[in-house]
Amino acid sequence: MTIKELEQYQKNKAEALQLQDIIKSLENSLSSNSIVITDGNRKSKISITEKLAFKLIELNKKLEKKLNLILIEQRKIENYLDTIEVIDIRLIIRKKFIENKTWEEVGRELHEDRTTSYYKLKTYLKKQTEKENEYDRTK
User: Fold this and answer.
1) What is the DSSP string of 1-51?
2) Which helix (H) or strand (E) holds 101?
3) What is the pTM of this model?
4) What confidence tens digit (pLDDT) does each residue in 15-27 have?
5) How far apart are CA 49 and CA 26, in angstroms?
6) Exposed e or buried b for every residue in 51-88, given b needs 16+ CB within 10 A?
């Protein structure tokens, strides 16, 4: 696993939260009165509420896909954490990427500088990648 993969999980969670906020906003708009306007090109009446409802359905489908992706990524991270013997590394990954804490918060909670936490993780992941590459070469 790489820092980039861990960060992707974090970004997907943030995007899901944004989608949830947009959906909540649209739901609030839908609860207001329906306004009907005339579409000049088609000469038919189009309900803004109808448009919002379609948009809401579309966003809910997108959110569902994103949440499924997040669950898959989270299982992958949890499985990876089960293979890590170094407690500090497990804590760093959990705090930074699963709990969405900043490097400053991670460092503070582990009673070390933020850069120490970052470099511990970076060094560990680099060594793991080197071991995997060495293993692949010996096959």
Assistant:
1) --HHHHHHHHHHHHHHHHHHHHHHHHHHHHTSPP-EEEETTTTEEEEHHHH
2) none
3) 0.68
4) 999 989 888 888 8
5) 10
6) ebeeebeeeeeebeebeeeeeebeeebeeeeeebeeee
